[in-house]
Amino acid sequence: MATLLLCERCGNPSAVNGSHHGRSFPCPACDAPIAVPEALDFRAHRHGSLADRRSGYRAMTVAWFSTILCMLPIPAVTAVVWWWASRRIGRARDEGREVAEPLLAARTIAAVACVCQTLTLGRVVWSLL
Q1: Would you list the DSSP string of 58-125?
Q2: Bridge partners of residue 33, in order along the sequence
Q3: Alpha-carbon gap, residue 81 to 109, rounded angstroms
Q4: Higher confidence at residue 10 or residue 20?
Q5: Dihedral over Cα of 20, 21, 23, 24: its sign
């Protein structure tokens, strides 16, 4: 299974595998050399990406579920989902991995749901005053 590395010049992702260890190859988009580190652990890199994808789907499920329950003014659940997805995104970027799309989607859904739930909570509190 291939691992994606980003071109430093144009940001285009390129797939590399174990045979590329310690070598460089031209970027398909801009022909800039992309160096594959000798110490890159493809197995750990791939495992982290798959774990991010699974985690993203779980977070999206929780975010959608709490969005559906938006009538209940409880923004804490979606705030935790947003924080957790943001942490996973930051970890992937720190490790040089591509960020899984489900994590980005879960963070967006949780942010929108949190705002909606906070506004609903404000309306409920305002109506009680």
Answers
A1: HHHHHHHHHHHTTTS--HHHHHHHHHHHHHHHHHHHHTTPPPPHHHHHHHHHHHHHHHHHHHHHHHHH
A2: 26
A3: 9
A4: 10
A5: positive
pLDDT at 45: 59
Across the chain, mean pLDDT equals 76
C-alpha 126/C-alpha 44 separation (Å) is 51
Give the separation between CA 16 and CA 96, rounded to whole angstroms: 14
Q: Is 43 helix (H, G, I), strand (E, B) or coil?
A: helix
Write b or e for each residue in 81-99: b if 16 or more Cβ atoms lie within 10 A of its Cβ, otherwise e: bbebbeebbeebeeeebbb
- Here the tokens at position 67 are 């969005």
pTM over 0.85: no
